[in-house]
Design brief:
The chain has helices at 15-24, 48-55, 105-116, 133-141, 158-167, 178-187, 199-203, 206-222, 263-301, 305-330, and strands at residues 6-11, 33-38, 59-62, 66-67, 72-75, 81-85, 89-93, 120-124, 145-149, 171-173, 230-234, 241-244, 252-255, 260-262. Helix content is 42%, strand content 18%. By secondary structure, the chain is α/β, with parallel strands linked by helices. It has 2 domains: 6-208, Methylesterase CheB, C-terminal domain (Rossmann fold, 3-Layer(aba) Sandwich); 266-330. A hairpin with a 4-residue loop joins β13 (252-255) and β14 (260-262).
Length: 348
């Protein structure tokens, strides 16, 4: 018998207090796995699992790549997306930010809908802006259940309001009623609409559809099939979109303000821009190395050895990244630029 045993929760501003109230009402042995994304600054340390473990009967930990199981709360750690995979597996990813956040809510919701379909219950709590709206669309499209905190009850109404107005919701309830609702949904009988399931998740996910369109457009560009259309390229001078001229004997591009490029000239401009971007990356990595070394020194002077070691690990990692770019990309490509001086990747 199919059950609802995957609960994905997204929240932002005001989320810690809301999550405490939510997990406090869930009983020990709750027969579902909970996955939580709460927007956290990428450089910060999250104590949310400890807070939630103290607040209720369920143990909460930061998620790690591997197997998940019921009766446990998995919290996305800072600076990593949390996604679900088939076979009761979860994965942490350092992918592109979505809605300016990593972790973001949409990747978790989308992956749950894609792989677990009707077993999924999504929950949107207090927060600003609209992260989670597209993910809620995917969950509902795959036959899952969408629960949204009543915007009038939320500390910040924007996120639940966006989800309920754009994606729709099966239940809009105040926070005080949400634990009992989740218990009923998990333990109660399922009524699955015909045709609902994991196979419909991808076709109903707007982000998935956008990714397919992008891939198709890039293939058509590579095969020379976009003459007279907007190309995949941007103008090196002004950053605007480039249109490809409708001339089969030429590969030529022009932006809407008039900058024009033959394909070979555009390639040269892209090569120069790429090298400049790589040197900028090297400079940024090395500056970060020095800054984290300085912070490690300060923490050690304060007697905070754990904090010092954490900054030293960051310093060592960023120094390695800088040297990898220089040695294996810039120097390997025959760059004539002058290499910046080496930064010792050993923390003091």
């Amino acid at each position: 018998m199919t059950v609802r045993d995957i609960i994905v929760v997204g929240t932002s501003a005001g989320g810690t207090d809301a999550l405490v109230h939510l997990v406090r009402g869930l009983p020990a042995g709750f027969p579902a796995s909970l996955f939580i994304v709460c927007h956290i600054p990428s450089g910060g340390r999250s104590s949310l699992p400890e807070i939630l473990s103290r607040s209720g009967s369920l143990l909460a930990t930061h998620a790690e790549t591997g197997e998940f199981f019921p009766g446990h709360i998995f919290v996305a750690p800072p600076d990593h997306h949390l996604v679900l995979e088939p076979g009761a597996q979860m994965k942490l990813m350092h992918g592109p930010r979505e809605n300016s956040h990593r972790p973001a809510i949409d990747p978790l919701f989308r992956s749950a809908a894609r792989h677990y379909g009707t077993r999924v219950i999504s929950v949107i709590l207090t927060g600003s802006l609209s992260d989670g709206t597209a993910g809620t669309l995917a969950v509902r499209g795959a036959g899952g259940i969408a629960v949204v905190q009543d915007p009038r009850d939320a500390l910040v109404a924007a996120m639940p309001q966006s989800a309920s107005q754009i994606a729709g919701a099966d239940h809009v309830v105040p926070l005080v009623d949400m634990p009992e609702l989740l218990i009923d949904l998990v333990r109660g009988p399922m009524r699955v609409q015909p045709g609902a399931g994991t196979m419909s998740a991808q076709s109903n996910d707007p982000i998935e559809r956008s990714s397919e369109i992008v891939e198709q457009t890039m293939r058509s560009q590579a095969h020379g099939e976009r003459r007279g259309q907007v190309s995949m390229f941007t103008c090196p001078e002004c950053g605007g979109a480039l249109w490809q001229t409708d001339e089969p004997r030429l590969i030529q591009f022009r932006c809407h303000v008039g900058h024009s490029y033959d394909a070979e000239v555009l390639l040269t401009e892209q090569t120069d821009a790429l090298e400049a971007a790589l040197w900028t990356a090297v400079r940024t990595f090395r500056e970060k190395t020095v800054l984290t070394q300085q912070l490690a020194t300060r923490e050690r002077e304060r007697g905070n050895e754990d904090g010092a070691k954490r900054f030293e690990e960051q310093a060592s990692q960023t120094a390695r990244y800088a040297n990898l770019i220089v040695e294996h990309v810039l120097h390997a490509s025959g760059s004539n630029g002058v290499s910046p001086p080496d930064v010792d990747d050993r923390a003091p």
